[in-house]
Structure formats: structure tokens, C-alpha cells
Write the C-alpha cells for this entry.
Amino acid sequence: MKTKIKFFALPFLALLVLFAGCSSDDSKSADNLFIKFTHNGVQYNFIDPYTSTSLSKNIRYFEGSDDSFVDISLWMPLVSQVGTFVVTDTPSDVESYNASFSLGQDLNLDATSGSITITSVSSEYIQGTFTFSGTSFEGEEVVVTNGSFRAYNIQD
């Protein structure tokens, strides 16, 4: 009887130790990074946009290919501050706020008007809202509304 108990107890203890040492890795979900917006009545809700920098800061999310491709970018100065800023069509000005949106193979837009409102800035995160519009490269009037984001804040 003692042999049977030892035989079953050893694997049970090993599993207990294994599962006791494991924890869920929700570090990404705990960060709650997102970018959300509406275009043509369709709500887009993406998790984990990425932030990159060069001469300015770009908060971007893209996925898919060909007809399922979606790409949105919000450009802003490297050092961000709380406030509402006008979206311009001068992407070469690293101190300006710009936006772009692509959907599938047939819709590509560099925004010509709109706003980006930064509601919170910390050393780790940047958060805000946005709306923008413009004429796509294909000649279609495009409007992106109800935008919001929370992303990592990289300053250099």
C-alpha cells in the first residue's frame, strides 16, 4: 500500500510544484494598449499598437494583406504634451501632427484635417483621442471618427 501511495504521490507533488510556480503572463494585457476608431460605420478595435520614433513619434497598427489590409498611423512630435492639436498635411514637419489610413488595396489616405487630443502623458504611456479626414489617393473622401489610443510613450 505504501508503494502505491509513493507511486502516485511523487507525480502529484511534481505537478503541484510545476503549477504552483506558474503564473499567467498578462503583462501585455495589463498594459491595456489599444487603438480604436470608426470608418464608414465600422468600428475597428486593435490591441497592442506599436510606437516608433525617428525624427517624430509614430503610433501605428497594421494587419492583414491585400483586401484585408488595415493600417493606421498617428504622427506627432517626439516630446508629447497634453492638449488638442490640429492634424496637418505636412508630414515632413517633425513638429506637426499627422495621420494616415489604409484599407485593403483601394483606399490610402494622408489626412488633411482633423485633430489629435493627447489626454495623458507619462514616461511609460501616451493616451488620447483623434478624428481626421481627407481625400484618398484614389479620390474618395475619407473620414475616421471616434478614435482613441493608449500606447507606449517613447521620447527618443
Summary: The radius of gyration is 23 Å.
